[in-house]
Amino acid sequence: MIRFLEDKKGIYILATTESERVNIGIFAKEIADFLDDPNFALVSYPSFEALWTSFLSHHQFQKFYETQKKIPIIIDEFPYLIERNRSIPSQFQRIWDLHMRDSPVMLILSGSSISIMEQEVLGYKSPLYGRRTGQWQVEPLSFEHLKEFLPWSGVDLAQVWFITGGIPAYLELFDSTMDFWSNVSRLFLTKGAYLTMEAELLLQYEFREPANYLTILKAIAERHTSLGEIIQASGLDRSMVSKYLSVLIKLHIVREELPVTATPGSRKRRYRISDPYLSFWFRFVYPEMTAIEARQTSQVLKRIKNNFPRFSGPLFELLTEHLIRERVLFPDTPINQLGRWWHNETEIDLVGISESEDLMICVECKWTDLSQNEARVILKNLEEKSQIVRWKNENRKTIYALVGKKIAGKRDIRKSGYEVYDLSDIDRILGTAE
To answer: What SUPFAM superfamilies does the database record attribute to this sequence (predicted)?
Structure first.
């Protein structure tokens, strides 16, 4: 947000959890600095409306308007204001409708609480509904940008993505002079460390009663992915699980999946935690909190190392999907749909569909080192499984692909008509090879 203002004159205000009066004083100080008028901050404004009307009528405001078409006003952590006073959206509706709408300003409301932003600011019942000209949810960094934080490649960078998902604030905590596991020990398994506590604090921020959400997320992290499995693992009844899953999906914490060729009404739903950091935390950190509190770091780390390859498999699928969506892999193929596919006991890690080209891409992802023979067996099985997929079976063209940690004999396999990539290929494409 601050960078957005680097080449333009505007106002950035960071709201706090303090009272409305205190926040009005903070706003007045930032506006006074913008106007270069210290006296503006000395006035006691009775409301946000009084504050903004005073600003818009200030003689300096017109001078700034003459230099640029719109003056950006950024209010960061807007949910803090709403938490203190639920009438804030109504107040800002009035401020916008009566004072700002026809003024040369651009009002940007930002916040890290997804639930409050989507329900209280963007939601249908919000007083501010219908007044936005755009909305943008900030996404994690693309995998290719991890190299800008850590001068690593291959396995190490992939493993960092598996446990952070490309969140810049998390990546900045890593020490590139230490190895991957030393960073895990320091950042995730140390009592009071930032990433040890972050997930629980995030959920407490989003939910007033996070206990049931924690239970459901832990069940999903342990690979209970169907509704029935989650109910059984959590011990909660069906209606509660369905309700909590609905909330988690709306907040983009959990992702609901259908086989990529299924109709929207299909009951073959599975659930997956969307965020790699939360997946790792619920799988390995949350169950070990007692041991972490007792400073049994080395014992916990040993258990994580033993189970990390199994955890990494599904995360490598997510990373491969990410690389396809980012057009790192298959850059010249227009893909309309992409996701997992399954029918009874048969599964394909990723299936991409290109409607315009009558093309289907079937991909297997293996977080392991493969010999040429092992790779060929996987691809042959993939060909057989693809015959079960019902989509333009008479006319479609099909590409069979394997993405692995390390694959031997790639050149010979490609001569047989298959697409094959491993981490060294991804490094080369992204320019991250050392």
So the answer is: P-loop containing nucleoside triphosphate hydrolases, Winged helix' DNA-binding domain
Contact 117, 82 (CB under 8 A): no
Same domain as 309, residue 165: yes
Question: Domain containing 260: what range?
Answer: 143-316
pLDDT digits (tens, 9 = 90+) for 342-352: 998 999 999 99
User: What's the pTM value of the predicted model, to 2 decimals?
Assistant: 0.86
Q: How far apart are CA 128 and CA 109, in angstroms?
A: 11
CA distance 208 to 247: 13
Residue 131 lies in a domain: no
Instruction: State the CB neighbour count (10 A cutoff) for residue 230.
Output: 25
Tell me the CA distances in angstroms from 299 to 135, 278, 302, one per residue in order: 45, 21, 5
Amino acid letter for position 282: F
Q: Please check whether residues 204 and 63 belong to one and the same domain.
A: no
Is 137 part of any domain?
no
Q: Are residues 378 and 274 in the same domain?
A: no
**Residues whose CB falls within 8 Å of the CB of residue 193, separated by 6 or more in sequence, listed in order:** 186, 187
191 and 290, same domain (yes or no): yes
Q: What does the alpha-carbon distance between residue 58 and residue 275 come to, in Å, rounded to a whole number?
A: 46
- Mean pLDDT within 415-433: 89
The DSSP secondary structure of 239-276, one letter per residue, reads: HHHHHHHHHHHHTTSEEEE--TTS-TT-S--EEEES-H
Task: Decide if 380 is inside a domain.
Answer: yes
Token duo for residue 434: 């050392």
Strand ranges for 101-216 from DSSP E: 105-109
